[in-house]
Amino acid sequence: MSSEQSPLAPETVPDTTGPRPPRLTYAAALAALEGLALVVGGVWILVLGITGAPDDRGQAVTGGLTLVVLALLPLLAARGLLARRSWSRGPAVITQIMALPVAYNLLQADSMAIPGGIALAAVAVTALVLLVNGETTRALGIRGPGRTRDQ
Asked: Is 0.90 topped by the overall pTM?
């Protein structure tokens, strides 16, 4: 495979020697915050399912474990963003897109979930804006569609 065909040609590897752009750091922090919230929520449901009297103990345990496993996606993405890995933007964007319908459902509730929906929507939209920003894209070494190394 020639250097022109190699996906890891030196020109495509991001320069990690300079300072990390603040927008990239903020996006990583928001992804980590979402991941930690999922871990806390999952552990909370798991503990309540085991120690409390849920309607269905198996469903509570499964729900708690599912949230903990889902937390891996934004946590790994946050770690990758801090390390300037280009692969990390995809999972981070997917996490934000998945958070928007959850925020919408929380906003439709007639309860204390509405402030949570507002906060989740604000975090998801802010993180999306930070992740698609040109400065973030360049720091991760991501080229736009149809771009060659010379452009």
From this structure: no
CB–CB of 31/67 below 8 Å? no
Contact yes or no for 115/62 (Cβ under 8 A): no
Q: Quote the tokens at residue 144.
A: 């736009």
- Contact of 103 with 124, CB cutoff 8 Å: yes
Query: Mapped to the 3 state alphabet, what secondary structure does 126-144 carry?
Result: HHHHHHHCHHHHHHCCCCC
- How many other C-beta atoms lie within 10 A of the C-beta of residue 77? 29
How far is it, in rounded angstroms, from Cα 45 to Cα 147?
47
* Residue 50 to residue 53: CA distance in whole angstroms: 8
CA separation, residue 10 to residues 46, 85, 112, 119, 145 (Å): 46, 14, 51, 40, 19
- Poorest-pLDDT segment among 46-50, 69-73, 91-95: 46-50
Backbone angles phi, psi at 9, to 5 degrees: -60, 150
